[in-house]
Specification:
four-stranded mixed sheet, 330 residues, 32% helix
Length: 330
């Protein structure tokens, strides 16, 4: 049987900063406790990129350099680099440009994908299409965010949730039935006001007033986001399973965006998948936005086997959400 050309993940690598911000340390900054945070989110600690002049690209560079070394890929072999991020170093140039340059990719194309927490899944789908079209043979997809740069550490509703980190995967052609076999993506701008950064863009550019009013930090309506995330993540994950005739027993791993342990548990429950088949590292890293899914793959890489069926699912600000069916290739 001849299988159509697909894009397979042939390597994964991650990077998280050294500094660990624990729940106990957060309790000295805002009115909270380790018990309160753990019970409501499942998070025990998160990594923070400390120091002036250190941006998202620094973490992306480390993840990509590790990926290329690990897979024995020369920088010049990479045809395209995509970076999913909501915390770019600059409004422009793209953080992907900075990563590609620092990693020695030369003049190869690179660009950012800004879809908040769904960013990696969107970027993975975009990168796969370049492979499937035959245009490129090696595509690097990075998910990286320095959320600490846009988090208000006086706001208990957001500061307990987020951390910094980066993950990267290498996509290559596969014709043996492995790779990204299906994906579903959605968005709804009506949800923008529930999770967004009010100032810093062209609609509300920086002024003394926007800084004074702390409008350059992420704002979230937790209950609304929770409700939409649980429903939408489960919907798209189930849709991907149904379209590909997958039952709960056929799925080796659910790889969910690490937003909140309660959201993850509810999603798995609605899909009929036990938590023993759910990738979970939110307790160590918190919500690293576009980096959560590749960091999960990195953490669980040694437990993955060739032919494993993975369902990736994410939900992010905007609102955006999606799911993907990946048959692991190594």
């Amino acid at each position: 049987m001849t299988h159509p050309l697909k894009a397979a993940i042939t390597g994964v690598h991650g990077y998280v900063p050294e500094y660990i911000l624990t729940n106990d340390e957060l309790a000295t900054m805002v009115d909270t406790t380790d018990e309160w945070i753990t019970t409501r989110t499942g998070i025990k600690e998160r990594r923070i990129l400390k120091g002036e002049g250190r941006g998202t690209s620094e973490m992306g560079i480390e993840a990509v350099k590790g990926l290329l070394e690990k897979t024995g890929t020369a920088p010049g072999e990479v045809d395209l680099l995509l970076c999913a991020t909501v915390t770019p170093d600059y409004v422009f140039p793209a953080t992907a440009n900075l990563i590609a340059h620092a990693c020695g990719l030369g003049h190869k194309p690179s660009f950012d994908v800004n879809v908040a927490c769904s960013g990696f899944l969107y970027a993975l789908t975009i990168g796969a299409q370049f492979i499937e079209s035959g245009m490129y043979r090696k595509v690097v997809v990075v998910g990286a965010d320095k959320m600490s740069a846009i988090i208000d550490y006086t706001d208990r509703t957001t500061c307990v949730l987020f951390g910094d980190g980066a993950g990267a995967v290498l996509l290559e052609p596969a014709q043996e039935g492995y790779g990204l076999l299906d994906s579903v993506m959605h968005s709804d701008g009506a949800g923008a006001a529930h999770l967004y950064q009010p100032a810093g863009g062209s609609k509300n550019p920086p002024t003394c007033e926007t800084v004074r009013n702390r409008l350059h930090f992420a704002k979230q309506d937790g209950p609304s986001v929770f409700k939409f995330a649980v429903v939408r993540m489960a919907e798209v994950a189930s849709e991907v399973m149904e379209r590909n005739h997958l039952g709960p027993d056929d799925v080796a791993w659910l790889v969910p965006h690490q937003a909140n342990k309660r959201i993850i548990s509810a999603t798995a429950d609605r899909m009929g998948i036990g938590m023993d088949k759910v990738m979970l590292n939110i307790q160590r890293y918190g919500n690293t936005t576009a980096a959560t899914i590749p960091l999960c793959l990195w953490d669980y890489e040694k437990q993955l086997n060739r032919g494993d069926n993975l369902v990736l699912a994410a939900f992010g600000g905007g609102f955006t959400w999606g799911a993907a069916y990946v048959k692991w290739a190594y």
